[in-house]
Amino acid sequence: MIVPLDHCDHCGTCISVCPVDALMLTENSLIVDHELCTECLLCVNICPVAALESKK
Amino acid sequence: MKTTWDIIIIGGGPGGLFAALEAAKAGKSVLLCERKREMGIPVRCGEAVGKEDFANYLPMEPRWIGSEINTFIIVPPNGKEIKLKKDLYSGYVINRDLFEYDIAARAAEAGVQIKMKANVQELIHSDDGSVSGVRVMESGKMHEYYAKIVIAADGVESRISRQMGIQTVLKPENIEPCVQVTASGIHLPEKALYLYIGTCYAPGGYAWVFPKANNCANIGLGINGKYSSNTNCAKDYMDRFLDRFFPDASIQRYVTGGVPVTTNLKRLTQDNFMIVGDAGHMVNPLNGGGITHAIYSGIIAGKAAAASCDDPQKMKICFSKYEKEIYRKFGKNHEHQSKIKEVVYQMNDDDYNRIGGEFLKLDDSKRNFLNLFKQVVKHKPEFLINVVRAFSGI
Ligand SMILES: Cc1cc2nc3c(=O)[nH]c(=O)nc-3n(C[C@H](O)[C@H](O)[C@H](O)COP(=O)(O)OP(=O)(O)OC[C@H]3O[C@@H](n4cnc5c(N)ncnc54)[C@H](O)[C@@H]3O)c2cc1C
Ligand code: SF4
Ligand code: SF4
Predict the structure, then answer these.
(1) Is domain B48-94+172-260 given the CATH code 1.10.3720.10 in the classification?
(2) Terminus of chain A with fewer CB atoms < 10 Å: N or C?
């Protein structure tokens, strides 16, 4: 399960690489659609500040 | 409550603001929705613009100028600064927060209705697949707004366009994850744009120091996405960079961001929907500059939308002209830049050091781009072949 961490800066870089459009920014947070997410980890690795975690 | 406009614009960066301003100046009713709470903030940007380039679009206002710069300094991995001849470059580091704030005010003055904290969640489609409006979350309430044309200016995330079937997902190698700080107490020997090039600083990208007023500077770094990982991300490179060059930096602004470094999207319109700026990947893939590209595409898109929102036949023609104009202005050039970028980033740190060393042997007056290019070719003849290939398309 992909989980945004507290230090996420809401820059949207992760959204630009998500192949299935499972990420969305709201006013103050980044939300992950776990139904759509394939856990490809592209977002986890692209984040400039490592603010996404892949949890078992 | 008003729910219908001629044109709705998603995103209030330079792309969206100029599209809104132009469309309103042409007499159309315009709504601009921006997710953030304050126009222009946060500034996810190095804020460097070329003087002439900027002047093509609008006159510079004194309060937008953070600093004026006429010198370029390249720093290879060994740290030996290569100063290019003065006056090869002339530009500004702007105050983008003030700039966007003022353009928003001009847009409002021209009649644009701006909503902040207005997050566009999705497009509303008509039966024929075209777009009829947007669903917007505002302070916990969902609203529906309708328009004849919707313009996506939603920046690098470019999520909205996907709902029109336009493929905007970037491969990791086509994006640069970046971290930037604005720091004070930065006493530079020279007011210049400093570019640090080498894999030790930023593989597949570069680090920058762009001075502003009062010994402040934007210090940032972007790496190519293919070198980015959860355990060695842009921030890790940035921490090492600051440790090496500015260990005592006092930081007053910290931002992250992503820069698309690829060729422009060819498809920038679909039915009654248009894309401007970063959302259409209109950034120069070699240097990552995109402010003026967003401004220009915003101006042209705003004009095209205003001229055609009441006439579907005319819309087709105007939209096709828009796509052609953007390709003419940036698209072709960015295809070349993209290829040159690949060659530049194939070099290793020894190559950069050696080229820098040779260049430094030249007389001051000869330190221009042409001679730098000659040194690169001397050390890496394949560079020339690749540049020729890039420009001739073989
Ligand atoms: C670290 C960094 C340094 C840079 N340095 C430079 C530089 O020195 N010089 C230069 O020329 N360029 C630079 N760039 C690139 C430049 O910042 C961009 O090209 C430029 O901002 C693009 O403008 P835009 O209007 O297309 O998008 P943006 O400025 O990104 O604006 C998009 C706006 O849309 C809003 N938005 C997104 N989705 C929604 C939604 N669903 N609903 C409502 N609002 C939404 C966002 O909040 C944002 O305000 C840099 C970029 C980065 C990340
Ligand atoms: S890339 Fe990182 S910092 Fe930016 S929105 Fe995604 S998780 Fe947050
Ligand atoms: S892991 Fe892959 S599919 Fe899931 S949100 Fe991240 S990029 Fe999208």
Answers:
(1) no
(2) C
pLDDT in tens, B67-94: 999 888 999 999 999 888 766 678 999 9
Model confidence pLDDT, tens digit, residues B282-317? 999 988 999 999 999 999 999 999 999 999 999 999
Of the pLDDT bands very low, low, confident and very high (cuts 50, 70, 90), residue B389 is low
Q: Which amino acid belongs to residue B258? A: G
Domains of chain A: 2-54 (3.30.70.20)
Q: How far is B220 from chain A (nearest CA, A)?
A: 12
Beta bridge mates, B147: B5
- Contacts A19 to B, Cβ<8 Å: 169
Task: Enter the ipTM.
Answer: 0.97
Distance B101 CA to ligand 1 centre (A): 14
Q: Which residues line ligand 1 (CB under 6 A)?
A: B 10-16, 33-36, 44-49, 119-120, 153-157, 160, 178, 180, 220, 257-259, 277-279, 283, 288-291, 294
With CB atoms and an 8 Å threshold, state whether B169 touches A26: no
Q: Is the Cβ–Cβ distance between B376 and B355 less than 8 Å?
A: yes
Matching CATH number, B4-44+97-169+263-333, of 3.40.640.10, 3.50.50.60, 3.40.50.2000, 1.10.3720.10: 3.50.50.60
Handedness of CA B223, B227, B230, B232 (dihedral sign): negative
Measure CA B45 to chain center. Answer: 8
